Records
---
Amino acid sequence: MSSISIKDIAKAAGVSHSTVSRALRNSPLVNAETTAQIQALAREMGYSPSAVARSLVTRRTQTVGLVVTHISDPFGDQVVDGVEDLATRAGYSVFLSSSHGNPEREVAVVETFHRRRVDGVIVLASRVGRLYGERLRELNVPIVLINNEAAGSLGSSVSVDDEQGARLATRHLLELGHQRIGYIGSSLRPPTSLRRWSGYEAEMVRAGLSPDASLAVVPNCQRDIQSGQAGLGHLLAEGVTAVFCYNDRTAIGVLLEAHERGIRLPQELSVVGYDDIEPSWYVTPPLTTVHQPRFEMGRLAMQMLLDLLEGRAVSAQVLPGKLIVRGSTAPVSKP
C-alpha cells in the first residue's frame, strides 16, 4: 500500500497543497473549521507526516545521540532510561552508540552523530570534555556531558559530587570505629579517582587522623574488578580493617579476593563501593555503597539539552550522593 501524501489529502478535500500543509501545522492562516476537517480527513486516510520533510521545514530531526562507555555497562542502564523517558515525552528518538572508554572514539561518535544531523548529543562518563573541549565547541551542536571527568570544563554537564560522596563513605567507616581505612583508586579515570581520594582524605583529616599515603593504591589494571583484586593485597600488608573503593566493580574485586584469601566479610574487613549498580545488591555480602541517582541524571541531562535547543541558558548541575548501607560493613573487630 502506497503512503498517503499531502497531495492526496488536497485532492480529496478539494483544496490546495499549501492549505493542507498549513492546516496540518495548525497555522492561523487557515480557519479553525477547515483545519479540523482537513486533520480529520488526514486521520481517516492514514496520513503519516514525513520526518524528512518536517525536518526540512523545522530544521530539526527530533533525534538525540547518546554516547555510553559500553552497551553492557551496568552504570549506564538507568541513565539511558532517564534520557529516553523524557526524550519520548518530548517527541524525540534516541540513537545509542558506545565509545568503549576510548576518548578518540568518543569524539568520533559525537562527530558521526553531528553528520547524521541529530539535534543534540549526550555523552556519559566522558573524557571528551577534558581532552577535546575546543573540538566539541567547533561542532556547533548542543552537547551535554554526564559525569564528565574534567569538572566544570563545559557548562552543559550533569554530575554527582565526588568529594561529598567519598566523605559519606569514609565517615561511615570512621563511625564504625575503623581508622586504618584504605582507598583503591582507578588508573583509567584519574581526575575522578583523585576527587574521590580528596574526599576520603578530607574526612580522615576531619576525624583527626593524619593522611597516610601507604593506604592509597591505584593499580595499573585495565578492568576495575582486577584493580580491586590487585589493590587488596597491598592494603592488607598495611593492616587495613576497611577499604573504600573507587566504584562498585572495584569493590566487587575486593570481595572476590577476600573470599579467595579466606577473609570473613564484614567481620574482618569492611568494604564500601561507589555507584550503587545493580550487581552490588546481589554480591555476598551485599555492598555498602554511595548511590548515584542515575535515572535522575539522565532526565536532567535530557532536560538540559531541550533547554539548549530552545535557546535557554543552562548551568552545570552537581547532585549529591547518598550512602546506602548494606552487609559489607560492620564495626571494627576488637583485638
---
Amino acid sequence: MLDVVRKFPEQAREALEMDFEFDIDFSRIRRVMVAGMGGSAISADILSHFSKIPFHVVRDYAPPPFLDEKTLFIAVSYSGNTEETLSCFSLAKEKCPHVAITTGGKLGEMAENVIKIPSGFQPRAAIAYLLFPMAKLLSRASIIDVDLENAIYILESEREKMEETARMVANEMTGIPLIYGYGVMQSIARRWRQQFNENAKMHAFDFMLPECNHNELEAWEGSREKMTCIFLREREEGERIKTRFDFMREEYKKRAKVIEIYAAGKDSFSRAMYHMHVGDLASIYMAERRGVEAEPVNLIMKLKETLSQHSRSSS
C-alpha cells in the first residue's frame, strides 16, 4: 500500500494525460452535482471550493429534487458498483447530461459518457485517477480554474519534504487525531480523517474553521482525553483565520499535542494536494506504528456482504 501511495505524483501525471471528449453543451450548465462515497466523493469536495457555479456533492441513494437539464451530473465510483452511487445515477441519467468516472462495473455499463480509469487499486489509493480527470473535465468546461500542472510540479518537487513531514506526524501523534482546516483544507482535513480511519484503523475527527470556533472550541474547557491536534495551514491565510489558528494553538497545547503543517505551493489547489499527500502517507506510517495492515477493509466488506444477503433474501 505504501508503494502505491508514494506514487501519487506519477499517478496524477498519468491521470492528467488521459484524454476524453463528450458531446455535452457546457454553456447550458448552471450547476454541478457529483454522486460518490468515501474516496470518490472527497475529490468532488476538494474541487467544489474552486467552482464558479453551485456545486453539490451527494453521499446518498438519491439526488436532491432540484436536479434538472441544466445540471452536470457526475457519478464517481472506482469499482462501478457502489450501490448508493448507482441508485443516484439511475435517477439522474435521463434528466441531465452526465459523466461517469469509473473502472467499469455496472456504472460503466449504464453511463453514456465514461472516463475509464485504471483498475487494480484500493479505491482510496486511486485518488489521482478520481480527482485529476474530474478536474480536467471541469476546467475544460470553464467551471473551475485550477493550475493542475503546478500542483503536479509541487508533488514532484516536494516529495522528500512531504515524506519527512508524514513520518514526523506518525511518530509524534498520541491519542486521537483531530484535524482542522479552513477553505479547501476543510475537505483535506476530512480526507485525513478518512485515511486514518481506513488505513490506520483508528478513530479520528475533522473540523472546519471558522465553524468549529462556535462549538468545538468550548469542549476544551472540560477535555481530559489524550489527543493530537493537526492544523493544516497556508501562509497566505487571511488575518482573521490566522488569529483564530494562533488562538487555538495557544489554548489547545495546554491540554493536547499540537502539530502545525504549512503546505508548499503558489496556489490553494497545489497546497491542498501537498497537504492531502502528507495525510495519505501519514496514515500508512501510523498503520505501521500501530502494527495493523493498511490495505484490508474487513468491516466495510462485511457490511457490504450483509447488505447483499439482505437484498437477496428480500427478493
---
Amino acid sequence: MNEQSRDFSRRRISAVVPAAGRGSRLGADVPKVFVPILPEVTIWDAVHARLAEVADRIVLVLSPDGRSYVEKNRATFPANCFDKTELALQPVPLGMGDAIFGASEFWREYDDVLVVWGDQFNLSQRTLKACVRLHSEQHGPTLTLPVVRAPKPYVEYVFDSAGRLTGLRQSREGDVCEPGGFSDIGVFLLTGGEVLGEAWRLYRAGSTLGSVTGEINFLPFLVHLSSTVGWPVVRYETDNPDEAVGINTPEDLAFARNLLQKNPLPNSKSL
C-alpha cells in the first residue's frame, strides 16, 4: 500500500484523546492540552496534526473547565485545529479508563479506537500509519500496541514467549519497573464497537481501583484483554524513545519546544 495513502483498507477509526488535566505543573493557567509549546503552537495543535491524518473522527475528552475554556475562546483557535473533532466531557477526574469509556457514545459506531494521551506531541506519522496498517490486517478483536525500550520505564509491559501481554508495572501505582523494559508511547489501537464496550463492562465488574491513585485505570484492561479474554497483541517496536515523551514538567516543555523548532508540524505556517 502506498505510504501516502489515507485508505487504510476499509476500517473506520475514532481517535480518543483523554485530556482533562490542567497545566499548573507547567506554570500555565489553561487546560494542559492548550498550553503553548511555541507562541502559536499548543500541545493540542501537535497532537491533532498527527491524528488528523489517520483518524476519521477525533474525540477530545475535557474537564468541565477545559470545555468552558474552548467555548469561551473558540474564535481565537486556528481554523482547522478542531477538524474532525468532537468534544466530550469527563465531569469528575476518575482516571483514563473512565475518560475513554465515558465517551463511548462518540466512538462506539467505529471499527477501531485509537487511544492517544493528550500530551504525546511527538508521535511520528510513520509509527501511527504502520500501526493502523498492521491492525487492519488482523481478523477478529485485536490490540495493537506500539512500544519502545526505555532505560527507566514509567510503565512497563511484560510479554510471555507467545507474545501475550501477561503483566503490567506502573510507577504511579507504586510498582518497580525494570530498566530496559518495554514502555508504551501513549498510543493504543483496539478493535472498537460493541465488542470493546462489552469487554470493558465485564472487566469493570471484577476490577479494582488503582492502589495508589484510586483511579479507574485503563492500562490493566489491556492485560485483561490479552491474558483473560484472549485478544491477540500486535506489538510494534519503535526505536525512537523521543516518541514516548509526554509533557508533564517545564523540562518536558523545553524539550518539546526544541524538537518542534527542528521538526515543524505538517503544513504549519507558524514555525
---
Amino acid sequence: MQHGQVGAHPRVGVVKFASCDGCQLTILNLEDELLSVVEHFDIIDFPEATSARSAGPYDVLFVEGSVSEPAHLERIVELRKRCRTLVTIGACATAGGIQALRNWGDHDAFRASVYAHPEYIHTLAKSTPIADHVQVDAELRGCPIDPGQLVELLTALVTGRRPQLIDEAVCMECKRRGVVCVMVGKGIPCLGQVTQTGCGAICPRFGRGCYGCFGPREQANAAGLARYFEAVGDRTTEDVGRLFAGFTAYSEPFRSMVSDLGGTRWARGEGAVEAAPAGGGDARN
C-alpha cells in the first residue's frame, strides 16, 4: 500500500470508537501549537474538526475510544491495514475506559435497565482497548491525554526520532512541584505510586488522591499498595478494590486488584446495576 508521497507532509487521521471525544478536543486545544501542527501534517480525517472525510491511507492514525460494539471489531482491523503508524489516545483506547467497568457485570442486565428497547442496542459484553485487537505502535494515556505528551509525540514523528515519554510515577511530579503527599499529610488513599505520570499531579495538587487516569506504570506494585491501604485506615477489602476500579481499571495490575479484592459488588455476584461505581470516586470520600 502506498502511503504519503516522498517529500509530502504525513497524512494524519483522527478517528473514534466508544469515547467522549475529550482526547480529540485536547488536540484542538493545543492553541499556539495547533498552527505548527497543521504546517507539518496533512490532516485528512478529523470528525471533531472538519466535515471532510477520508478513508485513508494514513501515515499516522490517532484512535480514540474502546472497542465496544460488533461493528468496531471489523472497523479497527480495516483501519489498521490503512495506516502506517497507529497511535491510541486516552484511557478508553489504551485501557478500555470507564465503560470497561461493565466487564465485571451482567451486560444484558445493564442494557435492559438503561434502555426501553434493549434489543436495538448492539454492544459487546466487554469494552476492550484497541491493543487487544490490532498492533498499536504508540499510545498516549490519560483521561484526557496530556497536551505536552501529544506535542512531544508529534514532534518525534516530524523529526523521525523516538518520542520521549517518561515512565515514572505521579509521585515524582508531586515532588517536583512541591506538593505535600496527601497520603502522608491527610491520610487520603492515592494511586500516585503506581500510576504513570502525565497529568501534572492535578488531583494531589488540589488535595485529592490520584485516581489512576493514566493507568499503571511499568512494574507497578499495585498489590503492595493495596496491602498498605488495608493495613492503614478503616477500609474493607472491597473498599480497597474499589480504589482501583476507575478510568483504567481493566489494565493490569489494576484489573487483578479489582477482581481479587471484590472492587465491584457484581464481581462477587451480589447485584449489578445499583452497585456500579462512578470511577471509584465514592471510595475516596
